Queue: 4 jobs
Job 1
Amino acid sequence: MPHVENSVISFSVMMSSLRHHKIARMALLSRVGKLWVGIIIFLIIAINIIWNHKTQAAEVNAELLNESTRPHTIYMEKLSTGSSRLGIKNIFELAREYATKNLPNETYQLYPIPIRHSGSINLVFLWGISRAVPGEGRHYIPPHWMVKFDSNTGDLIMEKQVFPADFNQPVTPGQFIGTHYWKKDGYIKNRIELENRIYELLDRLLPYFSEENNFESSATIQSAALELKSIYNIISKQFMRPYYCAVGHEFSMWIDDHANVELPPFCPSS
């Protein structure tokens, strides 16, 4: 009966093939199912990360706004220097001490802004709140506190709360105005040296600035003005310039005039 045997063998092979196809199909469906489960889990995680990021940003913004508008109890003992004139760096340190005693943590301090006052010079300092966000950088809100020191004696002259409108800025108190990216700005390796150089150059230039036009410009003054402007261009944060310029536009224009070189102005002409 060879014909019957061949039929039985063919039937067995067919059934075995069908079983293999069924197993393969089940395995494929199982893998596809696992793939879809993985995709759904990934989407859930991604949505959760995005939602948490937005929630954290909103919370940080609200906290910064609360810090910036909270009344501060100001304490600053009268500064008695015993000297006819302090260096700019000394006054900067006095301003930093003021901030440590009176202002919240994570308060940033801008560089001193010279303004003329009755034939002398006052130094204005602006402070605001910033907050470090992991993986992003340090977020800044507008300056909310202003203090003025006498550049000769270091005496505290004025202190007050300020708002973006005081600087002609169309933002609200507590609104983010910019972010300092650590990696992007990591190339400024000698920041401390540049900051110290700012104080030295201000010490050299401010006596002439206080005299307005009652002096003859020289190559030394022009060189100092050019160097100061170049350093400001390197280390000042672009989003902070409107605040520097609103207070110290006159000094910025004076530096531009005496730098005697075709560099873009630090502040736009008003």
Note: The helical segments are 2-69, 88-102, 191-210, 219-235, 241-259.
Job 2
Amino acid sequence: LTTHYMDEADHCDRIAIMDEGQIVAIDSPTALKAQVGLDTVLIGTNDDNRALALLKDDFQIEATLTDGLVRFGVPDGESFVPKLFNTSIEINSVSVAKPSLDDVFMEFTGNTIRDAETSSKRGMGVSSMPGPKALGRR
């Protein structure tokens, strides 16, 4: 299977990311996402400046303000979020986003998948390669 649809590739056992006709990464979707890095956490607060300072002072996390939300990255957002509720930050909303295959593609190629789809000069894509069971090996 060759696809530019990351949601299709995400269901495969193993994928290869290609850039200019060369395989630049190959592994399971989960393993590739883990290589990309941090979960993105967005919190809505009543005092963003105080939240930024507390994250820096108490957790050594550099956060930014994006569209009225405090944004930062941590290795395991779902485990980190409960720690926020034990601080003096008044939290109104929280969301955690895991890295996606789009993030993986960007990390390994320097381009978005949309750039790859529209580029006629470059041979980029994502290929699915079945695992041993799909090949019928035992």
Note: Residues 48-59 form the longest helix (12 residues).
Job 3
Amino acid sequence: MSRQPAPTTVQRLADELVPGGDPLHEEITGWLASSRRFRAFAREHRDKIRKKLRSATDADARLDVRAELRVAHLLLADRRIGLAFEAYGAARGGPDFSLTFRDAPSLNLEVTRPRGAALAGPLLTKLHQLPPSRPNAVIFALDGDPPADAIAATLRDLRARADAKDEAFFVARGFEGSKAFYQRLLRLGGIFAWRDGADADLWINGSSRIPLPERASRAVVACLSA
């Protein structure tokens, strides 16, 4: 009887993260095989990744996890970038990634995959997860190209609601009111609009209390655009 070849390190790690019959298995195996740094990241955080994938019980939830892992895979292609995964703790609802650039703390990144074209709901949800002491950005992982100026238009609409004291709107979305929305908005340095396989764009929040570092932000755009 012929022996089956022993599984490679990549295959073993992929099997630990996601079962072989899972639609994401082949894609994640490819990412692991193509990047030594992503392999090290996945190995370090295998328990978190495995838990996220097993907790994602529907197709959209699994695509959410896929977006996070793909962002990590792309960012780690730049050797100047280091990533900490859920450094604030998953239970506390902090950002997905804390990024260092050239070994210096640079910014937090929170990844979200909007359902459809509406961006306001996902953005308001993510504002709750941005800590006050470091530059923060949200990555919109899009299934298609965003409408022209969609992010700027979304922020104009939200600011108009806040200026009009639409308290019920913000309370229904977890804020104490319009003032609390503005306080959270000050923590947002910018939004990266990203679709896998296409160029990424960056919208800058000019009213942010802590602006995004320019060089690190450019590196993120370059990685996401690869």
Note: The CA atoms of residues 136 and 190 lie 7 Å apart.
Job 4
Amino acid sequence: MWILLALIITAPSWAFPVLHFIKPDSSFTQITTLDACTTFSTTVDMVKCNPALFPYQADQGLRMGGATITDGESVNVGQKLILDPIKQDFLRDLFQKRAFNSWAANSSIELRTPKFYMSYDPLLINADIFVFNPASPEVSMSLVKSNRLKVTSGWEVLRNDTLRFSIGGTAYYYRNQYFRDSFFLSDLATKKADQLIDFKKKNGVAADLGGALKFENRFLPKVSFVVKNLNSSLQNKDQDITSENQLRTILTYETYSRLGFGYDYKNSWGIINGEINLPFRDVYRELYTEYISGSVGYSLSRFSTQVSYSKYQSVLGLNFGSKIATIGIFYGKSRPLGDFSTQTENVSGVRFEVSL
């Protein structure tokens, strides 16, 4: 099944970024921490935050889940662009609607064993549409369709009285179709809809790598290292930029890396955890200072809550569960276009998982 995703590219200074709460393989913890969860070794979905946490996971069996935002108008726009045939009249209607539409969703089927996780992502969606310049209306879009098949595993390579060190990795095969460009309302007079929105295709193999360091001295923080999307075909290349009005989705499919510092406090009333996460372009080449995120959370048995913040995003999440199923709800605020626009979006969404 082909599905919609947003193309990731590091934004040049004159292009504007789009920020998403939900990403291709987001767990509920990733959504509600803004990815500041790479040192969390006590959550059921910790391996998606950092594959190096695999040795500390306990859950086994078959697990299915999905997540989406609940903004009905944006969902409707995204569905018509990707899941339905694109029609000329609908593109004309885009110029009459609100300036910015953004939709995100994902789903996964995952087999968990003591040695590895194997998962298939049948539905991955990020759609971004921005209409601007009323004098000569122009619409900018960032869209991609994709499937993924992934294998994840990890090992604890060092454990003594001083520290623990583990490593892990995820290898995945992807099939992408994507569109990233802008066009004017006047273009609809001379071109058909399928000529304006022409998807490119990319298939390949990519990987995530991670490391996790925990000191036995409880006063020292835990440290994590994660590199995402190595060998991804969706990279930042100047020659790919054909319009300064193109949307740029940040930290989703490009190769980027993270450095995390976290701390857990456990007592009979539950666990309090926190992390500061620093994202870098490519493999620790340049710090993305605007996307540094921090999170603080509390969990007790199958209940957890999380509060997180970054320059352009903030989110509150509540997660309730049992051995069979979990459901999470989240509410967030975002400036999806970063410094390009002061427009603020209120976003709410759900994440559900079922264990068999």
Note: The two ends are 23 Å apart (CA to CA).
